[in-house]
Every structure is written in C-alpha cells, then in structure tokens.
Amino acid sequence: MPGANLDGLMKAAWWEHGVRFLFGGAVTVATGAITSHYGPSVGGLFLAFPAILPASITLLKRHDGRSEAAQATAGARLGATALIAFAAVVAYLASRASAALTLTVASATWLSAALVLWWLIYGRDSRSLRRRRSR
Amino acid sequence: MTLLDTVLRFLLGGAIVSAFAIAGELFTPKTFAGIFGAAPSVALATLSMAYVSQGGAFVAEEARGMILGAVAFVAYATVSMLAVRRPGTRVWLDAIASWLLWLAVAFSLFGLWRRWA
Question: Is the CB of residue A23 less than 8 Å from the CB of residue B43?
Fold first, then answer.
C-alpha cells in the first residue's frame, strides 16, 4: 500500500529544492517561447517533455541507490501514460468548459488513471505480500 | 511574451514543479512516488495562462499536441527505466540521452499527424 513518509522531505538539501524551482520555471518559460514561435501544436508537444525527470532520477540515485531510482522511473512511466488521458480531457473540454473546470477534471483524470495503473501493476504484488506475511 | 508574462510563467511553473517534486519525495514505495515525476506540472502552468491570454480553442490545439508528447514520454520513461536498471551506467547521462528518443518519437508522431489530419 502507498504511504507517506515525512523523512523523505529531509533527504533533499535546500539547494536541490531551489534548483528544481529554477529549472521548473525555466522549462515553463521555454515552453511558452516555443509556443509563441512555432504555434500551439508544436508547443503542445513540449507540455509533455520529460524536463524534470533526469534531475529527479539523478538525485534519487545519489540518495537512495540505483534500485530505488529504477523503481521511480517505472512509476514515472505510469504517470506518463496517465498524461495521455490528461491531454485528451483538455483537448475535449477546453472549447466547451471554463479553465477551472477543464484543468480540475483533467488533473483528477491524470491522478485516477495513474492510481488505477499503479494498483493493477504493483498493488496486487503488495496485497499478495501481505497475505503471505499473515500466514 | 511580455516581461510580466515571462515572470508569471516562471513563478507559476517553478511553484507547480516544486509541489509535485515534494509529493514525489513524500510517498512510498518509489514505484508510487515516481508517478509524480511525470505529473502535468508544466502543462498546468502553461495551459492556465494560455486560457487567459489565448482562449479555449488555442488550449485545445495545444492539448492535441500534448497527447503526442505524452506518448513520447512513455517511450522515454520505458527506455530510461531499462537504462537505469543496468549496473555501471551513468544515470544522468542515460536520462539526458533519452531526450533524443523523446524528440524523435514526438516529432515522428507529429509528422504523421500533420500528414493524415
């Protein structure tokens, strides 16, 4: 079962949070510049550019090791698959609904799709592990 | 883009990316936390601003492009996962090299879409 661990927040140094903020801001500005220059279709491609993941994987490998980094990348694959659903919902709703409704429904769809995929692939493993431990 | 637009974009993008990064560090196991490594953080910042300045039809067009980018992201994450599992590889180098794969898949799909749409 997924859980939360506050100790995880202490692993990253303050400058690592700063680098992520700067990098996230820079990528968002760059995506806006690409959209202004090349139009919304090409700019849209870069809304799903894996800009942050290399830094996250590298930091994770440094803090927790290669195996944990590989597991996080496997999880990112599920998040990326759910991004397809996010984009499809926005493509359908954007001309029909308000910004708040469109982005809320799309975000809820992304999270739900990612959770269902995780449960189908990894949730069964943790359930069978619990069953084995209780015997 | 005006200077104000650029500053707003930077702050909004930085804040949303940081929030999802913190969520990724908070959760266990790593297969679950990793989901947040592919959160729609840049998309939420960019699309919310595009809604205000360009309108819904523009946002829908951007989202159609994003579907192709997301398919390329799945390919990127799959290759990165296989590369990271291999002992002895430099994780940061593999992850950045996989960007080339993302570009190839995304623009190939974009070319096909443009030809048949």
Answer: no
Which residue does chain B place closest to A62, by CA atoms? B91
Residue B28 has phi, psi (to 5 degrees) of -130, 155
Residues of A in contact with B107 (CB under 8 A): 45
- A24: closest chain B residue by CA: B14
Query: Taking the CA of residue A34 as centre, how many other CA atoms within 13 Å lie in the half-sphere pointing to its CB?
Result: 17
Q: Do B32 and A75 touch (CB under 8 A)?
A: yes
In tens digits, chain B (117 residues) has pLDDT values of: 788 999 999 999 999 999 998 888 888 899 999 999 999 999 999 999 999 999 999 999 999 999 999 999 999 999 988 888 888 777 777 777 888 999 999 999 999 999 987
What pTM was computed for the model? 0.90
ipTM of the predicted assembly exceeds 0.90: yes
A87 vs B36: CB contact, 8 Å cut-off?
no
**B-chain residues within 8 Å CB-CB of A65?**
none
